[in-house]
Prior knowledge:
The protein is an all-alpha fold and 83 residues long. It has one domain (3-81): ACP-like (Non-ribosomal Peptide Synthetase Peptidyl Carrier Protein, Chain A, Orthogonal Bundle). The protein has 4 helices and no strands. The protein has helices at residues 3-17, 31-34, 41-53, 68-81. Helix 1 (3-17) crosses helix 4 (68-81). The mean pLDDT is 93.
Amino acid sequence: MTxxxxxxxxxxxxxxxxxxxxxxxxxxxxxxQTLDLDSLDLVDVVVxxxxxxxxxxxQEDFVGRNTFADFSDLIYSKINESK
Length: 83
């Protein structure tokens, strides 16, 4: 899966799951604010991502990851680690 494919799929999944307008999910948009997430909602994000991408994400993986681009980069790197 290419980085672009990961980004597109992630955007589609998050927009659907969190009922957010897809156009609001841009690379520089803040993840937490755009999806209106609190810390408990992050558990949902982790489960959704793990189910859709077949990877494991730990809480510490979120440190320093503030934007959708940061999160997409994390998922892309996790997919490549598992190969």
